[in-house]
Amino acid sequence: MMYWIVFALFTTAETITDMLLSWFPFYFELKIAFVIWLLSPYTKGSSVLYRKFVHPTLSNKEKEIDEYITQAKDRSYETMMRFGKRGLNIAATAAVTAATKGQGVLSEKLRSFSMQDLTLIQNEDELQLDGADDTHTRVCSHRNARELVITPHAFDACI
């Protein structure tokens, strides 16, 4: 774990030093040698750097770090609650809007299929209607008005 903490710090510092020191002769070779020194079990470079620099710094700032974590946790809880309430309000508004708009469309569709229209067709055996494009639509009716079948071809059989 010490290696990964030191390596993360090295990677952070590397982004700045690459821009500033990449012109320096043997810069990239020195970086590779440093990473090998960090990784090597014989030199234990990451352990040395962690124990001399990282651990003392973290120990001195431990209370500040804990306070920051607590503040971040509280803020994140408040933020999530605020976004959750906003999301629920948006979803509720969308559901009510869709229900009110959908109800009007549904009632118009139901009015066009009233039982009076269906009972007029119920007594006829077969009707042929001519469309605007000269196609025939065959309407077959059954004893029950709910079994009304409309087929787009004149020669289709009623189901």
Write a structural description.
With 159 residues, the chain is mainly α. The chain contains 5 helices and 3 strands; from the N terminus they run αααααβββ. A 3-stranded antiparallel sheet has the order 1-2-3, with no helix packed on it. Strand 1 (126-130) and strand 2 form a beta hairpin. The two termini are 75 Å apart.
Shape, per Cα inertia axes: elongated
Strand arrangement in the largest pleated sheet: 1-2-3
From N to C, what is the helix and strand string? Answer: HHHHHEEE
Biggest β-sheet description: 3 strands, antiparallel
Structural class: mainly alpha
Percent range for β-strand residues: 5-15%
Strand count: 3
Q: Provide mean pLDDT, rounded.
A: 75
Distance between the termini: 75 Å
The helical percent reads 55-70%
Q: Given the structure, what is the number of helices?
A: 5
| Unreliable parts | 128-151, 153-159
Rg over CA atoms, rounded to whole Å, is 39 Å
